Amino acid sequence: MLVIATVMVTLLMLACAGQQDKKLLDDAVALAEQGSQALNDMDMEAYAAIIHPDDLENFRSMLMPDIERLAQLRQTDSITLFDKTFSIEDLRSEPAEKFFVDLMVTIFDISPELKTSFTEMTNDHIGAVAQSDSLIHVVVNTKMQVGTRHVNEMNVSTVRRYEDGWKLRISNKIEGIALMLQQSLRMQQG
């Protein structure tokens, strides 16, 4: 009798764990969908609010050295990026989330074609897999028009544990924009 009770309790625990894991994966998919929607809506504040703080800080850390170097070469305490002037001190001291929002809004404002690519992009969130107890990957089928090129590709949105909840990692498409901006800043340095 004890063996049967032990087996039943074990099966019940496994069933509950499976349901908990499914809810966790479903929550990760929902967060990835929220991020995709914010990008479609060009709501950079909403997007930044669900991005992991480490990713926002990495975004700034990737660009600030080149921004500072360019300002130093020009012997100025501000820099004009895409017809908008930013104080170097403000960029250094403002929260990483604001830095991200300010730059991304400016980039999308001056590039209507890029903006349209994101606003017309469709994402089908197919499912998720947990890599660990702090990292979940969501598989996404993305379709978008980039100029005259139609893109239909598989992407991964990653969700990372943050405090007692979850935050989204920055999209690889946004990382690509940051890399292009970094290269542009370096080219301007001569």
Please provide the ordered H/E string of secondary-structure elements. Answer: HHHEEHHHEEEEH
- Give the strand content: 25-35%
- Strand order in space, largest sheet: 3-4-5-6
Structural class: alpha+beta
Supply the CATH architecture. Answer: Roll
Give helix % range. Answer: 55-70%
Shape: globular
Per the CATH scheme, the topology name is Nuclear Transport Factor 2, Chain: A
CATH class categorisation? Alpha Beta
Rg from alpha-carbon coordinates: 21 Å
* Helical stretch tally: 7
- Regions with little confidence, pLDDT below 50 for 5+ residues: 7-20
- Strand runs, count: 6
Mean pLDDT: 86
> What is the domain tally?
1
Q: Which sheet architecture does the biggest sheet show?
A: 4 strands, antiparallel
Distance between the termini: 81 Å
